[in-house]
């Protein structure tokens, strides 16, 4: 089997396990129907599941059973989903479409969308606390919870989103743009990789290279996102192209030019692959994810 | 010293320790200034701090140093503060005033208010994870995190708030009203007491009586809230009276009549005090808090 068909099999298998567990966990909640529906609506909207996949692939690279990371993987995807719901709100990015479907607040109203986001954020910490103890020892769980809060909160994703909204209609320099992206998207991508390292009990050196890898990957992800917004296919993308321009958002292509942004993307991808090599681990799947990020069309 | 002056001294001391720690923790965050300001604005708006106080007093009743509960107490108050910020939003209760000051979104705008709430919710889990290990052992921390998620999420506070919003402009029966209140306010009050029991390592019997106590206290708290909304002093209350009526919210006085609601309040207070007695612990401070809830004018 070629590397990429191995990847396809792995990808499909763990995506299915993840989605089943997320749905089961939410379905078990004793809560008003509208809240459960709003949570499930966005959770099952069919994202790429890149973050959980990174966690599973990191465990695989370190010689562990990927399923050990199932509950934290659910936590990451639930937390990511909450951030999309809140980002789409009228007072934030005011988006009507997400993954080709009406955004959460368009279907359930603004109050329920805010509450569904709040509930998803909250349950993500619960998922880690409730992971089976044979897969994750107590101390690792606490580290995963603490690091998730750091990646997702004021010093991470929420800080990045705040700066992003502050930066609208302003022209930002490259440092400001990198602050926004490294916090808004980067921290949770990094967390997804590092969570795998924590669960696997990786040594400090391996952790350092995996951290480098995830930083490069996060930047590549964001540059690709900006390029897609510029010239992606609206139908595949599931949201209008050019929406960053409409909102006067600073982007890599705007700052570096399209060719400059493409060169920066190549550079980040190369950096990511070099870091992977240095880990000395079986990183074929992580390489495939890196390729996916470089070439993705949605 | 009389019981109530002991209480005053205890109350002032731990309120101060709590507020200092919350401010310090938020001030240390590396995050955009507007987000930090929005978080601190609501955290320092001077609430009654009933929930952290319950935790401190429970530890005292069980013969432990109340300061062992400092970080979870901060977590509870930060989480409570997030819930107030989100509840006040235009799409939710649409309140302009809170504790006599403009609500968070009136000062910082809706997007920043949502993000400040998200950040406070997130950091509350971090506070528990980062509590000094000599005050709370690993296993107790994980239990506190899991129970906080349960109390605050879809099966707790967020579920109650969803039902509350669904119930506006509808006439609810007493069971529906009790679902809303036991979830929207009750679960976090119960958590505040039970967190003390977890940290103190209380036995099952003591836990059961403390749980009974907190359930009665939570209902008393809500009935008093409804009565205050009806005939409280707007200046002391810091928000307009009669706002429930304006929003056509179902309340205890509306369902039971003012006299009926007052009788129900007395009944819950009596239940709370009986449960406290059964614990056999030194519950003088918890009794004082119960009195405070019964008689509070804001």
Automatic annotation (TrEMBL), chains A, B:
Keywords of the record: Isoprene biosynthesis, Magnesium, Metal-binding, Transferase
Secretion signal span: none
GO biological process: terpenoid biosynthetic process
Gene3D superfamilies to which the protein is assigned, alphabetical: Farnesyl Diphosphate Synthase
Annotated EC: 2.5.1.10
Annotated catalysed reactions: isopentenyl diphosphate + (2E)-geranyl diphosphate = (2E,6E)-farnesyl diphosphate + diphosphate
Molecular function terms, GO-annotated: (2E,6E)-farnesyl diphosphate synthase activity; metal ion binding
GO cellular component, one term: cytoplasm
Cofactor requirement: Mg(2+)
Enzyme class, spelled out: transferase
Highest taxon listed in the record's lineage: Bacteria
Family of this protein: Belongs to the FPP/GGPP synthase family.
Name of the molecule in the record: Farnesyl diphosphate synthase
Organism: Bacillus benzoevorans
Organism taxonomic ancestry: Bacteria, Bacillati, Bacillota, Bacilli, Bacillales
């Amino acid at each position: 089997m070629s590397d990429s068909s191995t990847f396809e099999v792995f990808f499909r298998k763990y995506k299915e396990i993840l989605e089943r567990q997320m749905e089961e966990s939410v379905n078990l909640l004793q809560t008003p129907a509208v809240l459960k529906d709003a949570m499930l609506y966005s959770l099952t909207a069919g994202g790429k599941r890149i973050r959980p996949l990174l966690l599973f692939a990191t465990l695989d690279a370190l010689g562990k059973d990927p399923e050990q990371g199932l509950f934290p993987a659910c936590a990451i995807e639930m937390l990511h989903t909450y951030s999309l719901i809140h980002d789409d709100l009228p007072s934030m990015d005011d988006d009507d479409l997400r993954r080709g479907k009406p955004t959460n607040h368009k279907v359930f109203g603004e109050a329920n969308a805010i509450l569904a986001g709040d509930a998803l954020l909250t349950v993500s910490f619960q998922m880690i606390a409730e992971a089976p103890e044979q897969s994750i020892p107590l101390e690792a769980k606490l580290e995963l919870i603490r690091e998730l809060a750091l990646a997702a909160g004021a010093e991470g994703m929420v800080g990045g989103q705040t700066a992003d909204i502050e930066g609208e209609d302003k022209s930002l320099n490259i440092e400001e743009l990198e602050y926004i992206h490294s916090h808004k998207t980067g921290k949770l991508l990094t967390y997804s990789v590092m969570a795998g390292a924590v669960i696997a009990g990786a040594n400090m050196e391996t952790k350092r290279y995996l951290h480098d890898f995830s930083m490069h990957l996060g930047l590549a992800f964001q540059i690709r996102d900006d390029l897609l917004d510029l010239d992606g296919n609206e139908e595949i993308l599931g949201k209008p192209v050019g929406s960053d321009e409409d909102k006067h958002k600073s982007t890599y292509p705007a700052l570096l030019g399209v060719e400059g942004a493409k060169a920066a993307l190549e550079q980040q991808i190369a950096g990511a692959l070099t870091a992977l090599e240095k880990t000395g681990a079986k990183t074929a799947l992580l390489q495939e994810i890196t390729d996916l990020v470089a070439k993705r069309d949605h």
